[in-house]
Amino acid sequence: MRTTTQLGLTLMLAFSLAACASVKDFAANVTGGEEPQATSAPGDAKAVPPPVIAEFGDIPIPRELKRQDDQSFIYEAPGTVIGVMVYTGTRIDPNSIGGFFREQMPTQGWRFINAYKDENIDLYYLKDNRSCQISIKAGMMETKVIIKVGPSAAGG
């Protein structure tokens, strides 16, 4: 009986440790491989700005989204960069993504022009001689964000 109890306790301990490792792996996958970091109170330290799309340098992108290179393209010529960038994320609220862009685009100098919302969310911005359209499309399991940047006749 004692051997059975010891074996049972050993197995429970092993399963508990394995579960802890699985939870840590899951958390690493959700956060992109980074350990969760404590958030600081306002005024403690400067907030880390969101990443920007490297090819444009001034379009922020939520960390939860993953770039889909096979659906994206960039055209570069002297003095101009245009393109379509596609990002996806699993189980991300489209309204929170829309709020992210409404908050972050002006910090990069983009001027909000207008927005349309039906089953999708479309946001339009101008900056200097460029325009940017951000389309947020919610699916059953995946949210897709399509960012189109091109020249603007209106100017910013």
Key descriptive features of the protein:
single chain, 156 residues, alpha+beta, Protein Transport Mog1p, Chain A, 7-stranded antiparallel β-sheet, 2 helices, 26% helix, globular
Explain this structure.
By secondary structure, the protein is α+β, with helices and mostly antiparallel strands. It folds into two domains: 32 residues; 86 residues, Protein Transport Mog1p, Chain A (3-Layer(aba) Sandwich), CATH 3.40.1000.10. Strands 1, 2, 3, 4, 5, 6 and 7 form a seven-stranded antiparallel β-sheet that branches. About 23% of the residues have low confidence.
List the helices and strands and how they pair.
Elements: H1 2-30, E1 66-67, E2 73-77, E3 80-90, H2 94-104, E4 111-117, E5 120-127, E6 130-138, E7 142-151
Antiparallel strand pairs: 1-3, 2-3, 3-7, 4-5, 5-6, 6-7
